[in-house]
Design brief:
Number of helices: 12
Bound molecules: guanosine-5'-triphosphate, magnesium ion
Number of domains: 2
Order of helices and strands: HEHEHEHHEHEEHHHHHH
Strand order of the largest sheet: 3-2-1-4-6-5
Strand content: 5-15%
Number of strands: 6
Largest sheet: 6 strands, mixed
Shape: globular
CATH topology of the largest domain: Rossmann fold
CATH superfamily of the largest domain: P-loop containing nucleotide triphosphate hydrolases
Low-confidence stretches: 145-150
Helix content: 40-55%
Radius of gyration: 22 Å
Mean pLDDT: 89
CATH class of the largest domain: Alpha Beta
Amino acid sequence: MPVQWYPGHMHKASKDIKALLPQVDVVIEVLDARLPFSSQNPLLAALRGDKPCIKLLNKYDLADPEGVARWQLYLEQEHGVKTLAMVAGRPDKSQQLQELCHKLLPAKKTSGRLLQALIAGIPNVGKSTLINSLAGRVIAKTGDEPAITKNRQRIDIGDGMVLFDTPGLLWPNLENPNSGYRLAATGAIKDTAFSHEDIALFVVEFLLEQYPDRLKQRYSLDTLPALGMEALALIGKQRGCLRSGGVVDFDKTAKIVLTELRGGILGRITLENPAMMEQELAGLVVLREQKAAKKQARKQPSQNRLP
Ligand SMILES: Nc1nc2c(ncn2[C@@H]2O[C@H](COP(=O)(O)OP(=O)(O)OP(=O)(O)O)[C@@H](O)[C@H]2O)c(=O)[nH]1
Ligand SMILES: [Mg+2]
């Protein structure tokens, strides 16, 4: 089922989280390690205030370790924030997470009170997989389709810890067009205005810049063209994605590139870095100002118009 981001969803999620927060000792924000900026929920930081927060960079098995390390340094500059690179489902990593929670809040364990953690994150980042792994049994349904978790759950995972599953639906920041592309590239959002070809082109352009050797190796390309569209055409030819008359079938080629990216076949890749984020956030400020100015101009009386 496609995900739609109704204002009602946002309102309900914020209300539910606000109601739950007084009981919560630590917020565990699950992010996709390949896109820690684009997989954030834009309101969560404001909602959680100064509650301690662990940012879990999940799907670390698919992300570039160097890129993740850079994000960890960046994210931990924020007061009260710790990070952990995670592969949800791996027991050693679950153990590390529990240890980190107790380390952040040592008084809980010594006082014998339960440590209560809220697991929050946008759809498809791996929250349910993580909860099942922490609980040691299947509690939450998991799946490739976003928006599977519907109801709030309180789960005792032992060792003095209780989890709350994300209530409601937390949406990603789709105001930034590049974030939309990256979320679509990883398969986090399926219902987008972009075609496979648009998304694959975005990915190939990024790979040409950041991971050119991976492209060369995977698609047996001796040299790389400067343009993404040309690279996509070469990949199509290599993979025999041709229509009659030898014309490249871009849709088929795009699907191959996206499947290989999502499955980690192109190697471990991180799709954004803190510098890109800063630049895109600055671009968004300009975009918002332009929109506000246009709105204001529409509201102005027609004094400047000719009679
Ligand atoms: N490779 C990899 N896949 C993961 C990892 N964690 C989760 N997944 C996969 O990602 C998909 C989504 O996982 P879920 O646990 O259902 O995600 P969710 O955040 O609960 O999603 P919603 O309930 O829709 O909000 C599933 O196919 C999981 O198997 C991970 O660390 N590595
Ligand atoms: Mg879930």
